[in-house]
């Protein structure tokens, strides 16, 4: 294989000659990079020690201002998110609306409600467990949630017993059973917090009440619902 050499307007092919690429010496490259970094570091140190005190103070002041400005903007963003979520929960928080939601939308609504209360909450993937539609947590507190919506719902003791059994096999502190319907009168449970449609409306009204500065509902007030 050859290559071409140009002479003015004439191009002559030179055959049988292979071009070889010279490989750069890695050691030489390392030495050159080291020299460059050392020179740059020396110049930076020299420049740093020549800066007068007033410049250091000004620099520190600018950094402090940047820190507080960033904190302020982050807090404003957080407050806007909380207010937007509050308005969404309020707009879609009528009992009839909740009854007509799909089960997936209702679970997401309840998850958002917990988040608005200050919990970490997420909808779980379908796993066949009777009391794990949602997982919620707050510091060391950990709970599971079952969500049930629709019309003419009456939760039976058997459903609560299944939830209690599932709770015993998990690391949760407590479980919440939230329904847009009601529970049979004889149902009582120490480990499952029962929230019917009326309790849910009360909770939504409290959580979505007008607040200033993006304040949120107190998480553990939820445990004191009668």
Q: Give the strand tally.
A: 9
| Overall geometric form | elongated
Largest β-sheet summary: 5 strands, mixed
Give start-end ranges of low-pLDDT stretches: 1-21
What's the alpha carbon Rg, rounded to whole Å? 33 Å
Distance between the termini: 91 Å
Tally the helices: 6
Q: Structural class of the secondary elements?
A: alpha/beta
For the residues shown, what is the average pLDDT?
Answer: 78
Describe this structure in words.
The termini are far apart. The N terminus is likely disordered. A 5-stranded mixed β-sheet has the order 3-4-5-7-9. A two-stranded antiparallel sheet has the order 1-2. The protein is of the alpha/beta class and 226 residues long. Helix content is 47%, strand content 18%. The protein is built from 6 helices and 9 strands. The protein is elongated.
Condensed summary:
By secondary structure, the chain is α/β, with parallel strands linked by helices. The protein is built from 6 helices and 9 strands, in the order E-E-H-H-H-H-E-E-E-E-H-E-E-E-H. The longest helix has 39 residues, at 53-91.
